[in-house]
Protein 1
Amino acid sequence: MGEKFRVDVQSEKYKKKREQQKEFLDDSDFSEPFGYVDLDVIDSIREEEQGADPKKPNDEIKKILASSRELLLGYLRDIYTLAFAKYILEEAIADSRFIAKIGEDSKLKGLFALASDTHNLSKRNKKKETTNKGNKIQVRTLWEALEEGFISNELYELMLRIHKENFEKKLEKFNQKLPEYLSNIRGRVESKINEGVLPITLEHFDHIVSETTFSIRDGLEASFEETNGKYLIDLGKIYIAEFLETDEAIEDTLTHELMHALGGRTILGTHTSVAGYKIEDFNHQRSGLFFGDKKNQKSWQLQWLNEALTETLTDLVIGKSRKNYANEKKLLNLLQSRGGHKIDMQAFINAYFENYSMSHPDRVPAWKELIHQINESYTPGFLLALDTYIKENSLLRDRRGSGVKKAIELLETDWRQINS
Ligand SMILES: [Zn+2]
């Protein structure tokens, strides 16, 4: 109903509006690790009944711990949250206080001893065992004990406290090291700009870094992408998973998310009239090669291509090939090479970093050039037909991986089967 207009990324209007929007959205942001809120409530209940024995939790505390436990077990049974949930168990197993408590419980003590005996016995028969396998066995045993209800409230609460403490330590370390991470990434980006690979300026990189906030998050409280990181364009925030441990892994994921932040944008503004007041708003219609409204998955277009490019750029910047988005990258390489003529990677890269320009007669010349090349190499409308094919052949919740795999098969055999 409202009047629509384009907004230039470089304009003061965009920068100002973005600041306002970020402030507004920040209020609703939630970033505490799993169990944090529950522990807060438990602490205040105990404070009210001063001197209460933590070994005899009252009914309210029992209820809180029971529902937290159910939630964690649910996360452990779900393939998309399993790694983050298992991490909480791994942290407990690595903590001497937790191990000491297990030793005090005869039933658990027996269970853990049995598990490691069986493990040692089978180790004699198989030589492929790794050194951390013993720890894996213990994590597995803890998981089973949790499922069977053998973990007391006291022990479960200790698990949550260990997780909370570790998170706080990691956040502190991350904040301390962030300037170093960013400076390392800046150096690598600068050399790729100088080599002519990245069609951006160092000023743009600095601007994006200055308007972005960085933090770690618990994977159970955030939905990460395959890289264990996330860029939220409206908030101007980058999150990475708390369980990324080495500086290298952290910098690599930050690089991927920063590529998303550096990607070109198309912004659609709207004027609406509410009770006589004129309200101006804007939406990111495109970032990088991703089109659509982030909040509405049905509207998404070329998400696979955007990730393939983002990860390809990450590989170029960090100087090695990571395993993330391997199928998406493979499909991009096939798209480049299986048509009538080879499409240069630089054509994709130029389109990725291109901002919609009000002053350029073609608005998005690099995007138009890319589409022209794909149409020439295949058939008019091929890229969108490929994207539709991927969406139609994807299973719910699998991050479109199944559709991408099917598209790889078709490009390897006969791309003409993709209707356009
Ligand atoms: Zn990504």
Protein 2
Amino acid sequence: MQGTAHAAAVPLPGRIRLLRHSELPQFRDHLLRLDADSRRDRFNGPTSDSFVASYAERCFNDGTIVIGYVDDGQVLGAAELHERPEDAEPTGEIAFSVERHLQRRGLGGLLFARLVESARAFGYERLLVTTHPRNEPMKRLARSFNARLRFDQGETVGLIELEPAPPLPARPGAGALALAVAAVV
Ligand SMILES: CC(C)(COP(=O)(O)OP(=O)(O)OC[C@H]1O[C@@H](n2cnc3c(N)ncnc32)[C@H](O)[C@@H]1OP(=O)(O)O)[C@@H](O)C(=O)NCCC(=O)NCCS
């Protein structure tokens, strides 16, 4: 993934992790701080502060997975996964936001990789990302995660098919026992 190379070049002191329920205010403030262009790209059009604030609240109340880039208690980037229960296969709609001063450092790629990890852990098989056709950074990001891009009613939709989580060992517990024996001898 090319994003990782950017990250290595410019140190990012924060952490990428799942956000706790109590971190709704930090997530909301992150979305509200996005500059006008980034906010428009994120929400595919103009939005008011009150829309953004209630959107953040909805995410924390409807089971959306929210991963953040957290630095000194502030959320400065985020990746979201919204379940699409209407789809036959386990599918999530994903979205990303990185504050302007941190863009182009590989953070989008790192958030994407962490989101894919969580999606697989939850058994998702397909991820969808929707953006407008001129959103080059998002399209590049999606492509670097092997998304198949198509155009649909003026939007670009990327589809990522995930490898399923690995199966359990044939004899559950056998591995743990072998380790314990190895530790004794
Ligand atoms: C999309 C977004 C999350 C990418 O975050 P980022 O941290 O800048 O991403 P990265 O640094 O990992 O770069 C991702 C790719 O986009 C490219 N890129 C980043 N900014 C770019 C720009 N302004 N123009 C062209 N390409 C750009 C990078 O070169 C990289 O491509 P590569 O891996 O082929 O080199 C960020 O730009 C953003 O928050 N945009 C506003 C919200 C948005 O558009 N969200 C997507 C819709 S949900």
